[in-house]
Amino acid sequence: xxxxxxKLPPLLERLGSMTAIRDTELLEQSLLxxxxxxxxxxxxxxxxxxxxQRCVGMLNQHRSVVLDRxxxxxxxxxxxxxxxxxxVPAPELALMENVRLTHKPSTWQIDGSTLVxxxxxxxxxxxxxxxxxxxxxxxxxxHAIVHGVLEVYANYYSLLDDSQRDQLTGLYxxxxxxxxxxxxxxxxxxxxxxxxPSRRRTAEYDYWLAMLDIDHFKVVNDTHGHVVGDEIxxxxxxxxxxxxxxxxxxxxxxxxxxxxxxxxxxxxxxxDVMERVRLRIEGHRFPQVGKVTxxxxxxxxxxxxxAHEIIARADRTLYQAKRDGRNxxxxxxxxxxxxxLPSLHFGSAELF
Length: 352
Ligand SMILES: Nc1nc2c(ncn2[C@@H]2O[C@H](COP(=O)(O)OP(=O)(O)OP(=O)(O)O)[C@@H](O)[C@H]2O)c(=O)[nH]1
Fold this sequence. Notes:
By secondary structure, the protein is α+β, with helices and mostly antiparallel strands. It has helices spanning 8-18, 24-39, 90-102, 140-163, 174-189, 217-224, 226-243, 267-283, 307-323, 332-337; strands at residues 43-49, 55-67, 73-82, 106-110, 113-122, 125-134, 206-214, 249-252, 257-264, 294-300, 329-331. It folds into two domains: 8-163, Beta-Lactamase, CATH 3.30.450.40; 174-337, CATH 3.30.70.270. It has a six-stranded antiparallel beta sheet with strand order 3-2-1-6-5-4, sandwiched between helices. The longest helix is centred in the middle third of the chain and has 24 residues, at 140-163. Residues 205-334 form the GGDEF domain.
């Protein structure tokens, strides 16, 4: 059987397992595995793009087949995820531009193989690119099958994405945070400036976790009613999301509380971002209510600590900002160095 012939039962099996998934990131990983296995290619990448076609994340699936001692083939699969500052190789970048213009696959013969870049669509919008190299490019049958797989993926992705979004604000919801954070934590935590730079990373920055909470929101509800309260929540959430990069992650954490994960080179830089968010809200005149303010607590994501601990640090910092009069942005390390906040260690009496 030629390598260009795709076997249907394994493909259907792969599609079946893809649609059994309940999380968008796992679905993306599963798509890469499916394409890799179906097309017989060992390296498949997914470059996620925002509405301005900037690359905001990358997943790479690498498959290798090795013979074990008994001479039996063993397949190992590795997924690499880059959440920010993705470096796209020049040939991929050139083909991605073609795909952006045509919404059709684009190919390039390089070094005896064909680089293929496919459009990844979501609700008619180009939301990413799939890239891989294959000896002779794609046959017509392979093109048709890949097109079908990508359609199933896109439909299922939008269903899943809806379930991970907060209905009122459209931000990621608490469920998405709870299911995603354990998986992304090792990557975020090990990405600090202190780490040796890797192939795709410059490691010129740290990741930071911020908790943002609307001040005296109960008064807004009590004075103007829940409908106005909801409108304020929606407007604040849009402004908050607007102040972060597209590749940052912003969640509705609780009622009037948001959680953001961003990268910045220093404490001063992250505080600049937080000040920008705070001033944007403070400077806006909200319908009926007028002025609304928010308080912010931010903590550096440190490899030594769990997500739970860093959230607790940011939360404690936020609480201090509230205690000091609200409408301010504080950073955990800075408060600590000033002696304004006891250090927070899980299992120690200081936390509780
Ligand atoms: N309208 C509306 N209100 C909500 C929603 N979720 C939570 N809230 C309200 O948010 C308010 C939060 O109140 P508190 O936790 O006392 O905090 P606060 O009044 O903002 O005071 P500080 O945080 O201390 O500044 C409560 O009145 C909740 O009912 C929502 O989805 N819509």
